[in-house]
Amino acid sequence: MSSYLTLYGVPKGGGDPISFYCVSRNHPVYQAVSDALNPVFYYGKDGKTNYSELTSQDVQEVINDLQTELKNCDARLEVLKENANGNLEVINEILEYKQLREELACTINQMDFLGVIVEDCKRDYNNGFTKILMNVD
Asked: What pTM does this model have?
């Protein structure tokens, strides 16, 4: 079973990719990226390290999926609020959806930040990375 999603930057000057971001399978970013993009596993059949490139389009795909989920969560919250009427079970469900909403919003922000890093690789003034890679190990 996969346990970590790792992002790497490929240095502009050459050399091996450098790990700069790693999250476990319990992390919302791992779950969102894994669901939307299905990144490659760390070791291939030949025992060599495998990578998938993370592009701006990939990041946007993940964000779009998360935003859809957030809209669905908001819609469900509205329905629950309308029908709460002091019902403790419904109130507890509202609290759960509010927590889910916060998690989704935070994950969208994290993906936005990763998108800035990916997009920055295209800039001439960037002295860091030429591209961002990822894998699951």
From this structure: 0.88
The residue among 1, 2, 14 whose CA lies nearest residue 134 is 2
The predicted-structure confidence for 65-91, as pLDDT tens digits, reads as follows: 999 999 999 999 999 999 888 889 999
Rg of the chain over CA atoms, in angstroms?
Answer: 19
Predicted confidence (pLDDT) per residue in 27-38, tens digit:
999 999 999 998
Q: What is the 3-state secondary structure (H, E, C) of the chain?
A: CCCEEEEEEEECCCCCCEEEEEEECCCHHHHHHHHHHCCCECECCCCCECCEEECHHHHHHHHHHHHHHHHHHHHHHHHHHHCCCCCHHHHHHHHHHHHHHHHHHHHHHHHHHHHHHHHHCCCCCCCCEEEEEEEEC
